[in-house]
UniProtKB/TrEMBL annotation:
Record-annotated Sulfotransferase domain positions: 34-226, 248-302
SUPFAM superfamilies the record matches: P-loop containing nucleoside triphosphate hydrolases (SSF52540)
InterPro entries xref list: P-loop_NTPase (IPR027417), Sulfotransferase_dom (IPR000863)
Keyword Transferase recorded: yes
Keywords recorded for this protein, A-Z: Transferase
Record family assignment: Belongs to the sulfotransferase 1 family.
Protein name: Sulfotransferase domain-containing protein
Length: 314
């Protein structure tokens, strides 16, 4: 775990594979009334909700090819704002950018997904570890947790990301859900998402049971692991190899780019375990003590941790 593996763009730590021009264009992009934007801190259920929303909006299972999928539902700061306005895009936009580093549109629809900080830290650890060069020797969870608590990992501080969205969770164009709610009551939350996207989408799922079951099946953990079994390196390579008809100017920096995953520590794929409570097998007593102190300091005067009052967190 090494802060040298990040670049700082307007006070947001980003992995070095993110082109600075694309990140800045994403920060300046103002979503339109037709845009659905999924916002999460990394490793909080992004891919899961993205897949559900893309399936509902397109009424078809999303593309399995990594590049095609990213064009259908782009991570805006990776592909640039150009990817958000291309005529062929049919799925939601994705971003991990903090609210303070993006243009909030009252016309667009936003789905924010929150995950408890204990499980989020563990999932983030495995992803960041897999993007950490082997020259970095200490890749222990304890080393990562120090970065996580200090906000010196991808996209910065967890609570600085979460709390601003928690404070506007009741805005009419914001749907605020938790990963844990989705895990416990998947079918119910899928319908809630569909209703938020538009009455016609909620009605379509309720009237077409086969479509509803297909959405649930395709977004199951087992299927998601099959679909997203590619590495970040393969994802970047696929972007650089798009045919001219589908290529974007914002993707020029990906041409010929390679990420030698063999030079990185072993990490995890985009979809890992998906469990609630996996933190228990990683946290020591010291980790818990440090994390409780960090949470108390970051949430002073805010009841955001009530989101997980039923989880028996430390």
């Amino acid at each position: 775990m090494d802060t040298d593996d990040f670049i700082n763009i307007d006070n947001v730590p980003m992995l070095t594979i993110f082109p600075e021009d694309n990140v800045r264009s994403a920060m300046q992009y103002e979503p339109s009334a037709s845009d659905v934007v999924i916002v999460t801190y990394p490793k909080c259920g992004t891919t899961w909700v993205q897949y559900i929303v893309a399936h509902i909006l397109t009424k078809a299972e999303p593309p399995k090819n990594p590049a095609e999928y990213m064009l259908c539902s782009p991570l805006v700061e990776l592909l640039g704002a150009e990817s958000a306005v291309r005529a062929e895009r049919r799925g939601p936009l994705i971003t991990h950018l903090p609210l303070s580093n993006m243009v909030f549109s009252e016309q667009a629809k936003y789905i924010y997904v929150a995950r408890n900080p204990y499980d989020c830290s563990v999932s983030s650890y495995y992803f960041v570890k897999g993007m950490t060069p082997r020259r970095v020797k200490d890749v222990s969870f304890g080393a990562f947790l120090k970065l996580f608590h200090s906000g010196k990992t991808a996209y910065g501080d967890y609570f600085n990301h979460l709390i601003p969205w928690y404070e506007i969770r009741n805005e009419p164009n914001v749907l605020f859900i938790t990963y844990e709610q989705l895990k416990e009551n998947t079918g119910e939350v899928v319908l809630k998402i569909a209703d938020f996207l538009g009455d016609e989408h909620g009605r379509a799922l309720r009237e077409d049971k086969q479509f509803y079951e297909k959405v649930l099946q395709s977004s199951s953990l087992g299927n998601m692991k099959k679909v997203f079994d590619y590495t970040p390196g393969e994802r970047v390579k696929a972007l650089g190899e798009l045919p001219p008809a589908k290529f974007l100017k914002s993707l020029e920096s990906f041409k010929g780019m390679t990420i030698d995953m063999n030079a990185m520590h072993e990490g995890a794929a985009f979809v890992r375990k998906g469990d609630v409570g996996d933190w228990r097998s990683h946290y020591t007593a010291e980790h818990i003590t440090r994390t409780k102190a960090w949470i108390a300091q970051k949430t002073k005067g805010c009841d955001v941790m009530n989101l997980w009052k039923d989880l028996d967190l430390p």
